[in-house]
Write a structure and sequence with these properties.
The complex is a heterodimer of chains A (98) and B (515). Helices cover 87% and strands 5% of the residues of chain A. Chain A is mainly α and 98 residues long. In chain A, strands 1-2 form a two-stranded antiparallel ribbon. In chain A, a hairpin with a 2-residue loop joins strand 1 and strand 2. In chain A, helix 1 (2-44) packs antiparallel against helix 3 (59-96). Chain B starts with 12 loop residues before the first helix and ends in a 5-residue tail after the last helix. Chain B is globular, with a radius of gyration of 23 Å. In chain B, 77% of the residues lie in helices and 0% in strands. Classes of the chains: A mainly alpha (98), B mainly alpha (515). At the A-B interface, helix 1, strand 2 and helix 3 of A face helix 5, helix 6, helix 10, helix 11 and helix 13 of B.
Amino acid sequence: MTDLVEAAAEARLEALARARTRIGLTLTAAVVVVYFGFIGAVAFARPVLGVMLAPGLSLGIALGAGVIVAAWLLTFVYVRWANRHYDPALRALREDLR
Amino acid sequence: MTPPPAGIGEPSAIAIAFFFVFIAITLGITYWAARRTRTAEHFYTAGRSITAGQNGFALAGDYMSAASFLGIAGLVSTSGFDGLIYSTGWLVGWPVVLFLIAEPLRNLGRYTFSDVLAVRFRQTPIRIAAAVATLATVVFYLIAQMVGAGGLIKLMFGLGYEQAIVIVGLVMIAYVLFGGMIATTWVQIVKAILLLGGATALAVLVLARFEMNPARLFATAAERYGERVLVPGGLVAKPLDAISLGLALMFGTAGLPHILMRFYTVPDARAARTSVFYATGLIGFFYLMTFILGFGAMVLVGPDAVKAADAGGNMAAPLLALLLGGTPLLGFIAAVAFATILAVVAGLTLSGAAALSHDLWVNVVRGGHADSREQLVVARVATVVLGIVAVALGIAFKGQNVAFMVSLAFAIAASSNFPALVLSIFWPRCTTAGAVASMAVGTVTTLVLIALSPTVQVDLLKQPSAWFALKNPALVTIPLSFAVGILVSLVRPEAGGLARHAALARQAHFGHADD
């Protein structure tokens, strides 16, 4: 019986590990896309970045600030997922695997 | 043109007073910390007693350098939008640290990042490879900081270059030698608060002249110097150069030994995670402030006056302080810049000393058999040695253009430490030989390609052209390092390797038995 519980827990740990790797890689890819998208626009779409959204506020400046804010928001997404799903799941597993 | 205003480059009584207050406070912290530093565990990790919030500030303190505070503000004040590209690039490495490295690192290692590699690979070769990569990263970063410090202090306090270097070296050795990680952490926290406070105060004073509206500031800049200051100029003329530098910044942060070491100072993986979230917010806020400071200096001080004070543009923020708050604010900002350099070199020296003492002496020379007393003594000897080396290199490179050495340090971290960590944590079939080959190839090719790059060949040696086209080699060396690691691992599988990775994978989630 305990063996069955343990085998099930092992499977859950593997699934949890896969979920974390998947989320880590997806969010890393998101940062790469955001930042290199910005650099790509700076390199290849210069006139577009010169569009003025308001007096003094060019699209380029807004996007530059946006990259910083987006990077921080992505860390928030990860921390929220980890605190809400990963940590409780891990706590439950820790008990089952003892 | 405009002569440098009085107050810049002269020892001002207020600047010196602020500086002595900072030194007195930090040495007081060091004295307090020294009484708590009795074991190697305390020396390297502050007894794992730092909270997530404290570590968030300390990470920000370790990362925000005087070069970014003064350099980016200067770049924006003289070239506008193009300077902002740096502001964004310096932040994007932090999410990567969080998503891939911080928590497994905390759960798998003890004192250095090579502990993580040593969990599943053979000790001696992996420790040597990791220590060499760590020392290369730390030494290049240190040279850039020391040479920058000498020049900066000369400009701000009117001290001689060598004097400035020796003072930085002595104070920094005192922090690390006596107070270890506890003192280093609190110096980082004090410095981060001072730097963030100083930058925010300056930004608020700037915005007060523009109805607290950044867009009005930018619009005034455009009125005076043309709309070109708000749009991309010629800085990213070569997209491949920008992409390569971007890769080094993004993945290098997750391989910087002094940053990685900070994750061992917190009690568990959750605190490590939370601390990166705080650090990313603080650092992001700081780089957003550089937008305001840079354009503020452009409009209020003027690009010509900035260039007249220092051709590199480093005096933009101090000049802005002088204009907005007079000599007291200039003195405060000068002392903050000094504190910033001291804190960064202390963190670098501690992580380099850990590589020498923990990785090389304790685990390679002594085969892991050294009692706590011996570990502490060796760590302190390594600190003094590295401190003296830093001072000597700072003096040896006087007057050289060493700004590229920071991006070199990031390139080595991104092409050597980062691939080895990722392969070791995430890839079951990686072998000792694969990880060692990946680190060795990453370090060596980075060094060779930098030597052959336009940065060294054209800018430093004045050759007409360079053999290698990119200024930063990360675009080539990161994929190469991964490819070598994977290829070598596949050619000769390691007996028992998969089982050791399975054990590592479990520990990466659950942490040490005593956590």
